[in-house]
């Protein structure tokens, strides 16, 4: 591995206004023309860019140039600088340059495999490596391995969460779904800790299919589980308490995305309006969880817990302690405002590379978290349920809510009337989880908690 500052930057000429006096990453200027930054990416016989620079530039460059065009320019520079188009090559020079070129291509294809989905990009790879292969046949073999690994990565990326569902895909319902799909989650899993573990499986599986480039490319151009018996307030309260325990275990695991999904589901109007049900719930633990995810102060409490989780992950002695699944919506918001709050280019037209260092830091941290292997044993019956549980529309949720507790004020009565269904007193009560099923419906995000906070919610 090339250590920071261990190699000098390539001999490039800075144009007027480029801040060569403020070196970042072993010589990369804090702002420079796009041409200069591309030149800094290209290896030579005596120079290789730092790993952090490679990630930062490849991540941010797509705001200014298509990845396919960037690869073409990099390959052209390599051919030109190393005189690889000459009939006779300097084999000693090429043997010094070849490994560095292959290392750059390996890092690029490993971190941003989607950049190589077009056949033209593969042609560029084969062309430039084909020019150095006569100097060492090991280069051709290494290129073959690189392309095999790339093919496997692209194949894996094509099998995202949707393809895992098979034919049992989530369906959105406006009213009660068919009785044939009514199922009791508590009949499948009655242990909050186990459900929290399975939610973590689902979260990590979904996160693995998110590439770092997706955070930036966005800037280049949002179950009803029924039984046959009516559910009483006591049963609904038990279900609410069950999900509170699930949320607590998600916090302890470091799965803040599922935690926020559950809290958001609990606070939705169709659930929060069930006053008679909530009166039977022990809410102390829920209030603590709400406090942890309170948006006050730009989610100050959550950010403190996330920093603790990140630290725990870095010093972890077990895979269990490495889990950090942040609140994903807030992560996207932070990256969005970082992009909107700082210009991509300075008034002189140069790329504001300092901005993209911070962007790369945030995205790089996320990439580290999403690569953690889930340490919990997977229960396929539970994860399949979580993937395929039906989803209610807002009207469907209110319908289930009014079936559980009749409308209390004029606004609710008018809404109930607008649903054009019979008076609720003539309908069977909704099952508890029919209302609460929304709690996990696709609020995806990641998080973690500090070790000193890990079991604070046990009390």
Mean pLDDT: 78
Low-confidence stretches: 1-24, 160-172, 177-183, 222-229, 423-459
Class inferred from helices and paired strands: mainly alpha
The rounded Rg comes to: 27 Å
Query: How many beta strands in the DSSP annotation?
Result: 6
Largest β-sheet summary: 2 strands, antiparallel
Which range does the strand content fall in? under 5%
Structural commentary:
It contains 22 helices and 6 strands. By secondary structure, it is mainly α. A hairpin with a 3-residue loop joins strand 1 and strand 2.
Briefly summarize what is shown.
55% of the residues lie in helices and 3% in strands. The protein is mainly alpha-helical and 459 residues long.
Strand-helix topology:
Layout: E1 23-24, E2 28-29, E3 31-32, H1 34-41, H2 51-60, H3 67-81, H4 91-111, H5 119-132, H6 137-157, H7 161-164, E4 172-173, H8 185-188, H9 192-207, H10 213-217, H11 233-253, H12 256-267, H13 269-272, H14 275-278, H15 284-292, H16 296-314, H17 328-341, E5 351-352, H18 353-370, H19 380-388, E6 391-392, H20 394-404, H21 410-418, H22 432-436
Parallel strand pairs: 4-6
Antiparallel strand pairs: 1-2, 3-5
Helix pairs in contact: 2-4, 2-18, 3-5, 4-6, 5-6, 9-11, 9-19, 11-12
């Amino acid at each position: 591995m090339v250590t920071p500052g261990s190699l000098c930057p390539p001999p490039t000429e800075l144009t007027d206004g480029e801040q060569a006096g403020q070196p970042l990453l072993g010589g990369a200027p804090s702002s420079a023309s796009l041409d200069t930054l591309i030149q800094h990416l290209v290896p030579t016989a005596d120079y290789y860019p730092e790993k952090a620079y490679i990630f930062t530039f490849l991540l941010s460059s797509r705001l200014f140039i298509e990845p396919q065009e960037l690869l073409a320019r990099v390959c052209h520079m390599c051919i030109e600088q190393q005189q690889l188009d000459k009939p006779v090559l300097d084999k000693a020079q090429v043997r010094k340059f070849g490994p560095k070129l292959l290392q750059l291509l390996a890092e690029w294809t490993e971190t941003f495999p989607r950049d190589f989905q077009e056949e033209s990009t593969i042609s560029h790879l084969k062309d430039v490596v084909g020019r150095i292969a006569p100097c060492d046949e090991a280069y051709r073999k290494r290129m073959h391995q690189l392309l095999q690994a790339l093919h496997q990565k692209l194949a894996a990326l094509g099998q995202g969460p949707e393809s895992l569902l098979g034919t049992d895909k989530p369906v959105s319902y406006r009213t009660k779904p068919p009785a044939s799909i009514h199922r009791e989650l508590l009949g499948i899993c009655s242990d909050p800790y186990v459900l929290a573990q399975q939610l973590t499986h689902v979260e990590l599986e979904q996160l693995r299919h998110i590439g770092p480039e997706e955070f930036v490319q966005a800037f280049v151009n949002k179950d009803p589980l029924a039984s046959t018996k009516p559910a009483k307030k006591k049963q609904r309260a038990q279900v609410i308490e069950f999900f509170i325990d699930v949320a607590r275990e998600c916090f302890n695991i470091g799965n803040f995305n599922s935690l926020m999904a559950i809290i958001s589901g609990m606070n939705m109007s169709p659930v929060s309006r069930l006053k008679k049900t909530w009166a039977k719930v022990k809410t102390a633990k829920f209030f603590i969880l709400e406090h942890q995810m309170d948006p006050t102060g730009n989610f100050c409490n959550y950010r403190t817990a996330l920093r603790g989780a990140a630290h725990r992950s870095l010093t972890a002695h077990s895979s269990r302690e490495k889990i950090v699944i942040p609140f994903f919506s807030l992560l996207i918001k932070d990256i969005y405002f970082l992009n909107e709050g700082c210009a991509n280019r300075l008034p002189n037209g140069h790329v504001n590379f300092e901005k993209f260092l911070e962007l790369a830091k945030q995205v790089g941290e996320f990439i580290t978290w999403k690569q953690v292997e889930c340490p919990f044993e997977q229960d396929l019956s539970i994860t399949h349920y979580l993937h395929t549980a039906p989803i209610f529309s807002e009207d469907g949720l209110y319908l289930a809510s009014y079936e559980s507790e009749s409308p209390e004020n004029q606004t609710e009565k008018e809404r109930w009337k607008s649903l054009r269904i019979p008076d609720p007193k003539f309908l069977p009560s909704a099952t508890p989880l029919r209302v609460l099923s929304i709690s996990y419906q696709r609020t995806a995000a990641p998080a973690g908690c500090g070790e000193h906070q890990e079991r604070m919610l046990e009390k």
